[in-house]
Specification:
The protein contains 7 helices and 7 strands, in the order H-E-H-E-H-E-H-E-H-E-H-E-H-E. The protein has helices spanning about 20-25, 35-40, 55-65, 80-85, 115-125, 140-150, 175-180, and strands at about 30, 45-50, 70-75, 90-100, 125-135, 155, 185-190. The strands form 2 sheets. The protein has a 4-stranded mixed sheet. The two termini are about 25 Å apart.
């Protein structure tokens, strides 16, 4: 598939202007606690973080510096384009999609990142035996994710339905906030056949 820059397509994100703290501006972005924690916990593995939100990138750059993390690289770009044009087939040991925007209004559900075409694209980049781990605190999105992932013939669910949160995935500030608001949290861990 060739990339056509004039092609109009649905975006799974909206770039929102946010305020950068002085530390974030110096570092370049914000958030990213879970990504930094996972990379620090697993120093023998290499990670690529993909994010469009500038404060998220800045915060993560700050954490990388503070924690001296050297196994994590960042790309500030649309994840669909990164996977399509920058990653080789069968090149990833695993993919984490944690708390993507749920686009909870029905008319916006088409913008959700976890859709069949994107899952097929991700699976093509995951090596056989590799995994796809998704997490959300929106029950409707969890049901949607389970349906989409279960329908992908190259994926196999590691659990009966939803998985227990793996030890490597820390509780995030966002997740803790959702739990305090009474939201559940759903993890889905599938492996590539």
């Amino acid at each position: 598939m060739l990339y056509d820059p004039t092609e109009r397509r649905i975006r799974s994100f909206v770039t929102r202007a946010g305020r950068l703290s002085v530390a974030q501006a110096r570092a370049g972005t914000g958030m990213g606690d879970a990504t930094a924690d996972i990379a620090a916990l697993l120093p023998e593995k290499n990670f690529i973080g993909v994010e469009v939100h500038t404060p998220g990138i800045g915060s993560l750059l700050k954490l990388i510096s503070e924690k001296s993390i050297d196994n994590l690289r960042l790309i500030q770009h649309d994840a669909v384009e990164v996977v399509t044009h920058m990653l080789a087939l069968d090149s990833l040991a695993g993919v984490h999609v944690f708390f993507p925007d749920p686009w909870h209004k029905a008319r916006h559900n088409k913008r959700r990142l976890i859709q069949s075409p994107f899952v097929q694209l991700l699976v093509s980049r995951i090596a056989p035996g590799g995994y796809l781990h998704c997490a959300t605190d929106w029950e409707d999105y969890a049901v949607h994710m389970l349906e989409v992932l279960s329908a992908e013939p190259q994926l196999k669910n590691t659990a009966e339905g939803y998985a227990t949160r793996p030890d490597y995935r820390p509780l995030t500030k966002f997740e803790n906030r959702g739990i305090k608001l009474g939201h559940g949290v759903w993890d889905l861990v599938f492996t590539r056949r």
